[in-house]
Amino acid sequence: MSQQSPDNKNSSHEDAWYPPKQKDLFILKQLVSKDFKLKYRRSALGVVWSVLNPLLMMLVMAAVFGSFMRYNDPSIGNYAVYLILGNTAWQLMSDSTSQGMSSIIGASSLLKKVKINRYVFPIQKVLFGGVNYAFSLIAIALVMLVEGVPLTPYALLLPLALLLLMIFCAGLSLFLSAASVFFRDVIHLWSVVLTAWMYATPLFYPYSILPHWMQVMEKFNPMYLYVTFIRDIMLWDTAPTVGLIFGCALSAVLALVIGVLVFKKNEHKFILYI
Known about the structure:
14 helices; mainly alpha; globular
């Protein structure tokens, strides 16, 4: 008979998929706080960079693309606001998934010493991305104020849009963090996928310039749906359609279900590969 390893002896207990508990919430809070402090350690401007970064990116992209992107579609409205709303939503997804993907590998030393629910680490990266987005809202507010774009009651739907986007990011992070443990190439491949995905999403160009077949494909692009939701309520003074909200919710639920299933099925083997 083969001898069972100590880790496998307690697999039924240690590897169970626990629901969030007070302990996990405390750990999440501590990890988010730690990442926040590390990010701005030895930075002269500190948290101000979370406001400056989206502003600077918006200014650069507006200078580069503004003169030849918006003339083709006046329905874009204010191009500066159009840009910053799309870029900040994209950055939330990109940062959350990229950091969440490496979270299990990065926490390997801790996981080998302490009994802790493994899903905490990718979820923590998504929450940290949400904290950074909260600071970027200051930049969005400043641009809207300078450009004279008023807030409307539809802006009250922003928390819903962000909640669905973060659920989507959580599902992707769980899936990617599990995949990267077994296949490290996923880490390099994801950066390529993000680049292609970014250019395939109307962040700095109008939807109308896409050929018909790409416009059809955008209906299945979750980031196009989330960015459109945010632009509808913040820029275009329009209530999102039922179809748009349903598409955002469906994308979030599908990503979360797939992420949880893949993570739960493989997490008991993480210790052998990290």
